[in-house]
Amino acid sequence: MTILQLKARCILLDIEGTISDIRFVYEVMFPYASSKMGPFLVENWISLPVQDAVRTVAENAGIESIDDWLGANWQIGRPEAILKFAEHCQQLMASDSKATGLKMLQGMVWQFGFENGSLRAELFADVLPALEEWKATGHDLRIYSSGSVLAQKMFFKYTVLGDLTDLFSAHYDTTIGTKKEVASYDRIIAESQYEPEEIVFVTDVQAELIAARQAGMQVVASVRPNNVPLPAEFTWPTITSFSQLQFLNSIGLSDT
Questions:
Q1: Count of domains forming the chain
Q2: Calpha distance 67→81 (Å, rounded)
Q3: Which pLDDT tens digit goes with each residue over 43-55?
Q4: What pTM did the predictor assign?
Q5: CA dist 226 to 40, 98, 245, Å?
Q6: Which residue, 115, 149, 175, sits at the end of a domain?
Q7: Dist. CA 144–CA 65, nearest whole Å
């Protein structure tokens, strides 16, 4: 097994296909959100977080007038407005949309599922020991996922291994930018106050690796069961387990 020895101060991690099996996301979390979205909207339509998400969904879709789309006084929860909006959300989920508004709503639905015990996040067996070791050696652990920050926090609070939220200092979602754009990583660098080369980003998606590397980060590809295979010509560092990642003393610190 190849060991990658890297110097870094901050470790930025994807979730799906990196920390958790992609099948858990697609076969458990997504079906749960799909089945519960309609009832959730009916029950919570007039809440401010849901109506903020509705506006964001409309903005993501390029809809200029929600009144024209869902009807006048849509805020009060007319059944026809909720049904039309719910159908739109189902279409977005069927296409695996990463739209920010949809991710906001999915996060709310998943929060309900995690809190009532219907959902418990599953991690690869090598993940928790590595995270605890990296945290203990002073490395800053952060998450960047297409799922909303709320969904990320629920995911790590309610795992089969217990509450892991204290391991992470920050979470980023598509409100900072999409994961395939260099500007998103530039914003994370600026927010984190690390130098680009002090951050290692681990994900399973080549386009994300390219964008992060163009921003100056170190990158490592996660090759896990059920992930979409990387191109045959891919030559950047890869791992099949977090146990292959060994972080030396942080950049800027003495190696003695």
A1: 2
A2: 10
A3: 999 999 999 999 9
A4: 0.90
A5: 30, 20, 21
A6: 115
A7: 32
